[in-house]
Amino acid sequence: MFKRISKLSLQNKMHALIYALVIVEAMLLLLMGIVYVRMLTSETYARNRVQLSALSTDLQNEFAEVDNLVTRFHEDAGAQVHLERAENDKLSAYQRELARLDLSKDIGSIAATSRVNSWTIMDDRGHRMVGGNGLDNYIKGYSTKDYLRTVGNDSKKAKWIFGPDNKAVYVHNLFDTHDLSMKHIGTVVFTIDLSFIQQFMSDSGLFSRQDFIVIKRDNQYYLTKPNLAHSVKSGLRYHGPNQQRLTSINGIGYYLFSKALNLDNTSFTVHYYIVNEQIIRKIVTASFILLLVILLILIISSNIANYLLRRLILPIDNLARNMQDFKTADDLPRLRERAEKANTFHRSDEIGTLYRCFQRLMSEIDRLVVKDYQSQLLTQEMENKYLMAQIDPHFLYNTLNSINWIALSHGDEEASEVVTSLALLLREKADAKTQSTTLEQELNIVKAYVKIQSVRFRDRLRFSLMIPETMATQNVIVPKLIIQPIVENAVKYGVETTDRPVVVRVCLRIENAHLIITVFNDGKGFNPAAFQSESTGVGLHNISSRLKLKFGSEAGLHVESAVDSTTSVKIWLPYAKKGEVSLG
């Protein structure tokens, strides 16, 4: 297969490559589409779970409000006293009736802001103390005794009984808590209208007409669609709380999500049935749109690829034929004319560059030999000039000594000192054999440089050198030329740019087995990030690199400066004495 591909022309190879890329693009887009649909599915279910969880919280709050009514009664010592007085046979009938009226007011105040429609309090013998008489058959098949029987006399748990037509009954025992005896003193029975659940469903905007809710507690079920009770009960037999799955009821697909509601005195499980077709419809719609987008991208990318391929390959084919037709220099005019007719010289891409280069190649090919000959002559001439420029350094030093002798003979000591300093400075910089020197010799180089600059700047340059009395500079070894370039930078950027006198100070000290060298000047300052000496060829960066190369992390250079401020360059390196290291 690879042999067959290798025999194809560039145009066919590029076509094959483009088609392969389109296929790969289609596969990647399809894969991305599948992943996107799965993510959309998960996100859709997750979004429904979040919204249903929020609705579950609302339901839990409503049921908890009813549950909290009993807690509020147990916290109301007055209501408990009124109930006990209403049951006390030792009191007169008038006193007991007053106690019932007070108890009725207490319960009415407690239940005023809840979903409770009516309330009845029974004493510990099952006799009605306060409240209505309509409990019998409020839920079909249940009498007042049936309600009381669900909790007994000792149970501290509440009981809910659900009935048709959004009816529910809440039963809970009452205990004497104000004296901590926890004696059973009666039972409260609340009737509640559960139609608010359907109102919650309508307000949420999440449910359709086919969706419904099931609330389950023990063997009690409440359905917003009571006609589906039989099918739902059988389907929920093995479905626990906080689960989700797809299910079917009477041939209709539902997304079932369950949520546990835990209250202080009881617990429920809420089951949400959402028609699965709505979710599937959203996913199918998104998948269809995604497929159209993928097809549109493939068609557009294929057409663009073919256009670009023609624009790329055709000029290259023409150029290849021109180059194949080139045999001798006589072919150059004809090929140049053919290339000009191709009208590709004005293109700004690589094709235009290739044609322009080919044109220049044809124009220059007949002169390559002459240019090569001229290049050889120029190289030979440069070599001769280089050899002539190799002046013996001793000749330069002897010349400086002669100038020094003339200056002394004329009594010009200042000129003699400048010449002597220049000779020392040139000799040390020209000596590339030694990489280290004594601190004394390094300071002599600095003094020689400062002497030369003092003649130029006079009082504008105020140089000082601070050396500890205990430091023997003749025995301290330092890398060569690490102080003079910094002093030169201080003069150049501190003294030259300022009309006032500038202090340049070199301070030496020993700290933690390290030699600390600080060069300070109070000139205009500079930006350390953009600074590097150009006059000496050895900038701060080069000095730092030399120190790092020789001593590693034991040495370094730090600059503190700012525009129109003082400048301080600090160098630290291991303190070494003569004899401990060589001067090589």
Descriptive notes:
It is elongated, with a radius of gyration of 51 Å. The longest helix is centred in the first third of the chain and has 66 residues, at 10-75. The protein has three domains: 9-301, PAS domain (Beta-Lactamase, 2-Layer Sandwich), CATH 3.30.450.20; 391-432; 433-577, Histidine kinase-like ATPase, C-terminal domain (Heat Shock Protein 90). Helix 12 (393-409) runs antiparallel to helix 13 (413-430) and helix 13 crosses helix 14. It has helices at residues 2-6, 10-75, 77-87, 93-111, 144-149, 195-204, 229-235, 276-325, 332-341, 350-364, 368-388, 393-409, 413-430, 439-457, 484-495, 540-551; strands spanning 116-123, 128-131, 159-162, 167-176, 183-193, 212-217, 220-223, 244-249, 252-262, 267-275, 436-438, 461-466, 476-479, 502-511, 514-521, 556-561, 567-574, 576-577. A hairpin with a 4-residue loop joins strand 1 (116-123) and strand 2. Helices cover 51% and strands 21% of the residues. It has 16 helices and 18 strands. The strands form four sheets. It has a five-stranded antiparallel β-sheet with strand order 2-1-5-4-3. The chain has a five-stranded antiparallel β-sheet with strand order 7-6-10-9-8. With 584 residues, it is of the alpha+beta class.
Provide keyphrases for this structure.
transmembrane helix, Heat Shock Protein 90, Sig_transdc_His_kin_internal, 18 strands, Histidine kinase/HSP90-like ATPase domain-containing protein, five-stranded antiparallel sheet, alpha+beta, 21% strand, phosphorelay sensor kinase activity, 584 residues, transmembrane
